[in-house]
């Protein structure tokens, strides 16, 4: 589904990814771990298409398309979803309105019928229950006045509505208490199926107790330096990343 | 100072001087310009709230140093170095300036009398109706210096501006700070002064300035100050000012960013009592990209005093990456006092961060009640709140920051 | 980085290409008019007054204003570049011929005019409006001003039942001379400023509203201004009086045909709010802004002022300004009555070569007076957008409060956003707060929206709408929808 070959990327003059390879098949969950500054978030931003990250070398194939040729919103409509580490606030823009605009823009791109407000409302009602979110968050402006945990939950809620093919969770666990973490993980697990894949970027093994990955990769200095299964995450929890320096 | 008396004064002054032709010409042209502009009125933006009529009714200066001629030569500064004024001694001398140098004077530091410089070294200052007193300064110039600090050097300097006559002292000072040099400058003014000061500071690339300006003035004093700072790239400036009283204290400051990545941070305190008037006007001119200016002012007016604050930032077209902040806060203690607060932003490109805030109010009731509930008497509690309000502007974290102000 | 420069150049090219925005109200109504030849002198003023069959006192008042105007100079303190105006090249009176025998009811109005307003979406047929009652919350009574005259006023009967007077200014002069005489020029004196003096001399029509004591106006009132004739100026004068305990919501809309020449609109609005009364005054200003090269468009030089003369009086100005080549406008509040309140909510959007210098004055005279200012400026293209405000607290305005928030959004590298908020306080118990920010649309917000699949253009419009939300929510429902749509149209092409 996703094939990343030898990606080099930089922000300004700062080279961050230095030849990263990753292959993801439908239905797989890949965890990306690694020390601060290794380039974990940059990987998510490259896939989503953030303009200030410049890809200097390499290719990304997503479901047979050259992902790097696509605009940010085209990638989204093709099925890429990024759950942001720091979801941005958009004052005055109603959360529901925003989400419906997003969903319908994506449906339009894919040649699907746009959803009317009653269909949309129904969809939202069912999903919001699953996410244990308060409905008043929907009427509030996007992320404005949300607590850290609410913002993260809102990301997963948006993901459940937009139903992407590949979801990238960028440190979605950071700043969450254990209850919120479980809710977020539940949300993700409910979406897991044979056709949907996940990239879970995290610092801690803790999240992986709830979202069990098929593969764990260690990203250091812009490259994947080790890959393994879930046991690698447990090992890292014990040994830390100090060994990378040797 | 004005109209007819000024013509007379001008004649008296120029007839005494034996000056080169070019300077005589500058003086007479300047006088003409000053007279064409006229005295600013309330129609003039930067003088809107300043009653210039007050200048004609000033009380006589009583406390003057014995008059004497001001002598300057290249060597005079190094002599000064040997006779550093000790702390605690009365700095009053018959000279317009008293220099106090802490530590070493860098080699190759140059000092020249402004009246002795070559024509080619004289830099005209662009004036308009608002800056009419700059022309008067040129016409009536009676002292000043040009100080040049060599590159890669450091200097800590205190300049005291003195009142040596009963008349207006028209002073012009130019300070050039060399590449990668660092100047720690403190300026203070005679408390019973009548000074029209034009100062220019030119900051070369990578130079740094720590600048403290103290205008602690008598209620009958008058000070008109035009200050210009020109910044090449990568310059860092921190400026702290304390303005207390004066019948009329009016400042126009211009900060020009001519090179990228320069930073200007300024904080000032204005406190006025009785019928005093303080007007502080600052313009930060973001002509190039990636410069940062942060202006903070805390003002307090009581009795019948008035304070007019104006902070303006202009970001030119193309000056992307500019960062502008203005914070003007004011407290009025009596109903006869007046505050005029005017933050202004003129932004001509989109890649900027600009924000300003301006408030006028009384002391916070809740805080006052809180302090009193802890047993602090009302007057003392008020005083504490005023102090903490003004402390916002203490950017150098000096301990005696408010000691010399009449609160 | 060279890449960056390139993209911004490309962006600019794109902007230029797409900036050919459509001004849907730019058509001309082909109608026979009785139009004065251009020129301004005492004779013209006498002729206007004669056309209106005005009493002598009003003619004298006009002539006094004219004499005053002759001694005045056009103000130049605003941050505007105003090309010289030849006041003798303007016609000061134009009226559709068919309107000569003032139509009694809508059925007497020239069908061409009705068609014009149908095209503009202004409902004039009362039956139709009433038939639509199900879909609209309340019907709106409309006074329609076409060039220099009021064409018709709807729902007069219904309003009369409630004791509300809603008619053209000319009718008010005839039917309610005492009210007009009592209030005319009392909050905008003839010599107040250059354009108000000109207006006082040559004003031709406008709306007049009087809400009697303890009456809540049964429906929203609105005036629709239309400039049609070439080379004419529109100089209307509106007056609203809310007597003790009265309440009214008034809406104002404006459009004009697309023309290469600039046209002048110099209006005066005077509001009087007595004890416990309330006026809510909303404007959606969509005068023709000129083309993408800055050619043509309306000069909108307007003086609007409200006098809160009574205790607990309240006035609220809400404006959405998207049109006009140049806007010079400062709806103000004189808070004379104790506990009176003034509010100013504004969205001003400029694109292409438009210039706007707008804001408000809050003059606090009474005790415990409060004012709120929320201003949102959006600049795009090569336009310049200025907020200019003054909050003045007089010595006796004990306990006065003001809160001001004004934010500016810049779209593109060639526009300007300027903020000049002045505060003058002479009372130690007053508290004033002003906050302002200026920035472009955040890259992070755009990235977030785009990542969710929303195009840049839609994301921009969404963020701009969100930015204006605080002001839009002050508008009556239907106006808010219109304002939002207008904003989107005016922004079209501004995003590359």
Q: Can you tell me about this structure?
A:
The complex is a heterotrimer of chains A (246), B (407) and C (496). Chain A is of the alpha/beta class and 246 residues long. Chain A is built from nine helices and ten strands. The radius of gyration of chain A is 18 Å and the shape is globular. Chain A starts with a strand and ends in a 7-residue tail after the last helix. Chain B is of the alpha/beta class and 407 residues long. Chain B has one domain (6-362). Chain B is 17% helix and 40% strand. Chain B is built from six helices and 18 strands. Chain B has helices at 3-16, 21-37, 76-82, 132-140, 365-373, 378-391; strands at residues 97-102, 110-113, 143-149, 154-161, 169-177, 182-189, 194-203, 208-216, 222-231, 236-244, 248-257, 263-272, 277-286, 292-301, 306-315, 322-332, 338-347, 352-361. In chain B, the strands form two sheets. Chain B has a nine-stranded mixed sheet with strand order 1-4-6-8-10-12-14-16-18, with helices on both faces. In chain B, strands 2-3-5-7-9-11-13-15-17 form a nine-stranded mixed sheet, covered by helices on one side. In chain B, α2 (21-37) packs antiparallel against α4 and α5 (365-373) packs across α6 (378-391). Residues 67-93 of chain B have low confidence and may be disordered. In chain C, the strands form three sheets. In chain C, strands 5, 6, 8, 10, 11, 13, 15, 16, 18, 20 and 22 form an eleven-stranded mixed sheet that branches. Chain C is α/β, with parallel strands linked by helices and 496 residues long. The model of chain C is unreliable at 1-21 and 130-137 (pLDDT under 50). The two termini of chain C are 19 Å apart. Chains in contact: A-C, B-C. The interface between B and C is large, with 36 and 35 residues.
């Amino acid at each position: 589904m996703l094939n990343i070959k030898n990606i080099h990327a930089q922000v300004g003059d700062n080279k961050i990814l230095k030849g990263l390879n990753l292959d993801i098949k439908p239905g797989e969950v890949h965890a990306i771990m690694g020390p601060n500054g290794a380039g974990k978030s940059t990987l998510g931003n490259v896939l989503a298409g953030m303009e200030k990250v410049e890809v200097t070398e390499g290719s990304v194939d997503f479901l047979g398309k050259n992902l790097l040729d696509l605009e940010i919103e085209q990638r989204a409509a093709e099925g890429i979803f990024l759950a942001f580490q720091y979801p941005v606030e958009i004052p005055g823009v109603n959360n529901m309105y925003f989400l419906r605009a997003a969903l319908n823009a994506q449906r339009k791109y894919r040649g699907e019928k746009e959803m009317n407000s009653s269909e949309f409302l129904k969809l939202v009602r069912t999903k919001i229950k699953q996410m244990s979110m308060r409905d008043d968050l929907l009427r509030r402006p996007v992320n404005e006045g949300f607590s850290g945990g609410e913002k993260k939950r809102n990301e997963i809620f948006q993901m459940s509505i937009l139903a992407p093919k590949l979801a990238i969770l960028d440190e979605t666990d950071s700043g969450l208490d254990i209850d919120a973490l479980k809710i977020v993980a539940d949300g993700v697990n409910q979406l897991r199926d044979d056709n949907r894949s996940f990239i879970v970027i995290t610092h801690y093994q803790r999240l992986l107790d709830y979202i069990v990955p098929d593969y764990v990769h260690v990203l250091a200095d812009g490259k994947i330096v080790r890959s393994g299964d879930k046991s690698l995450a447990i090992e890292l929890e014990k040994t830390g990343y100090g060994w990378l320096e040797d | 100072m004005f109209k007819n008396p000024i013509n007379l004064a001008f004649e008296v002054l120029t007839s005494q001087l034996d000056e080169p032709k070019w300077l005589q010409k500058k003086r007479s042209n300047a006088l003409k310009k000053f007279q064409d502009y006229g005295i600013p009125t309330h129609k003039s933006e930067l003088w809107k709230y300043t009653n210039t009529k007050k200048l004609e009714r000033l009380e006589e200066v009583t406390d003057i140093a014995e008059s004497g001629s001001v002598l300057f030569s290249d060597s005079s500064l190094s002599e000064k170095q040997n006779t550093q004024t000790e702390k605690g001694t009365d700095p009053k001398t018959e000279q317009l300036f008293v220099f106090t140098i802490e530590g070493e004077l860098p080699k190759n530091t140059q000092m020249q009398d402004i009246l002795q410089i070559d024509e080619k070294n004289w830099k005209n200052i662009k004036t308009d109706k608002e800056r009419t007193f700059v022309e008067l300064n040129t016409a009536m110039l009676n002292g000043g210096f040009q100080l040049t600090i060599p590159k890669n050097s450091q200097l800590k300097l205190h300049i005291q501006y003195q009142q040596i006559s009963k008349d207006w002292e028209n002073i012009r000072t130019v300070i050039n700070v060399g590449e990668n040099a660092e100047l720690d400058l403190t300026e203070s003014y005679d408390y019973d002064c009548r000074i029209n000061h034009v100062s220019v500071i030119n900051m070369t690339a990578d130079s740094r300035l720590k600048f403290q300006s103290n205008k602690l003035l008598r209620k009958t004093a008058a000070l008109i100050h035009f200050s210009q700072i020109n910044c090449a790239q990568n310059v860092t400036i921190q400026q702290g000012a304390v303005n207390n009283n004066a019948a009329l204290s009016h400042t126009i400051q211009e900060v020009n960013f001519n090179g990228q990545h320069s930073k200007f941070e300024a904080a000032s305190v204005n406190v006025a009592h009785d019928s005093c008037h303080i007007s502080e006007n600052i313009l930060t001119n973001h002509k190039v990209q990636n410069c940062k200016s942060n202006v903070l002012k805390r003002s307090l007016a009581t009795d019948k005093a008035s304070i007019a604050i104006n902070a303006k930032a202009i970001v030119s077209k193309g000056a992307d990456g500019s960062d502008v902040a203005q914070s003007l806060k004011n407290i009025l203690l009596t109903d006869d006092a007046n505050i005029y607060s005017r933050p202004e932003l003129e932004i001509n490109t989109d890649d900027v961060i600009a924000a300003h805030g301006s408030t006028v109010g009384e002391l916070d009731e809740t805080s006052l009640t809180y302090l009193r509930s802890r047993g602090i008497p009302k007057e003392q509690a008020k005083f504490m709140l005023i102090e903490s309000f003004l402390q916002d502007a203490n950017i150098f974290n000096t301990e005696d920051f408010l000691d010399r102000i009449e609160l | 980085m060279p890449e960056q420069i390139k993209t911004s150049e490309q962006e600019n090219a794109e902007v230029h290409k797409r900036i050919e925005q459509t001004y849907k109200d730019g058509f001309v109504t082909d109608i026979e008019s009785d139009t004065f030849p251009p020129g301004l002198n005492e004779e013209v003023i006498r002729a206007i007054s004669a056309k209106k069959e005005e009493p002598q006192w009003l003619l004298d008042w006009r002539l006094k204003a004219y004499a005053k105007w002759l001694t005045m100079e056009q103000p130049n303190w605003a941050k505007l570049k105003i090309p010289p105006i030849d006041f003798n090249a303007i016609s000061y009176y134009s009226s559709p011929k068919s309107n000569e025998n003032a139509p009694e009811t809508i059925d007497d109005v020239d069908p061409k005019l009705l068609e014009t307003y149908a095209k503009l979406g202004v409902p004039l047929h009362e039956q139709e409006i009433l038939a639509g009652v199900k879909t609209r919350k309340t019907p709106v009574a409309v006074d329609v001003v076409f060039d220099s005259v009021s064409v018709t006023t709807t729902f007069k009967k219904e309003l009369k039942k409630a004791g509300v007077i809603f008619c053209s200014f000319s009718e008010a002069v005839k039917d309610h001379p005492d009210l007009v005489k009592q209030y005319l020029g009392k909050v905008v004196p003839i010599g107040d400023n250059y354009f108000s003096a000109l207006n006082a001399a040559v004003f031709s029509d406008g709306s007049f509203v009087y809400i009697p004591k303890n009456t809540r106006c049964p429906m929203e009132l609105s005036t629709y201004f239309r400039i049609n004739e070439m080379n004419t100026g529109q100089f209307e004068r509106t007056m609203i009086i809310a007597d003790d305990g009265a309440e009214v919501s008034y809406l104002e809309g404006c459009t004009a045909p697309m023309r290469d020449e600039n046209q002048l609109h110099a209006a005066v609005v005077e509001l009087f709010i007595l004890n416990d009364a309330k006026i809510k005054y909303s404007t959606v200003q969509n005068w023709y802004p000129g083309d993408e090269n800055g050619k043509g468009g309306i000069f909108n030089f307007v003086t609007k002022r409200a006098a809160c003369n009574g205790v607990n009086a309240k006035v609220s100005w809400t404006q959405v300004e998207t049109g006009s080549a140049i806007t010079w406008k400062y709806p103000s509040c004189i808070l004379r009555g104790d506990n009176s309140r003034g509010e100013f909510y504004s969205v001003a959007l400029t694109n292409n070569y438009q210039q706007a210098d707008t804001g408000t004055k809050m003059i606090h005279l009474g005790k415990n007076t409060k004012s709120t200012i929320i201003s949102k400026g959006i600049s795009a293209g090569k336009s310049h957008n200025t907020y200019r405000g003054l909050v003045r607290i007089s010595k006796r305005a004990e306990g006065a409060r003001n809160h001001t928030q004004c934010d500016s959004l810049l779209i593109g590298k060639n526009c300007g956003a300027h903020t000049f908020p002045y505060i003058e306080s002479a009372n130690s118990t007053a508290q004033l707060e002003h906050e302002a920010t200026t920035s472009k649309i955040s890259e992070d917000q755009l990235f977030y929206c785009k990542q969710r699949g929303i195009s840049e253009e839609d994301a921009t419009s969404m963020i701009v709408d969100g930015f204006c939300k605080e002001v839009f929510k002050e508008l009556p429902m239907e106006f808010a929808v219109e304002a939002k749509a207008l904003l989107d149209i005016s922004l079209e092409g501004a995003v590359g």
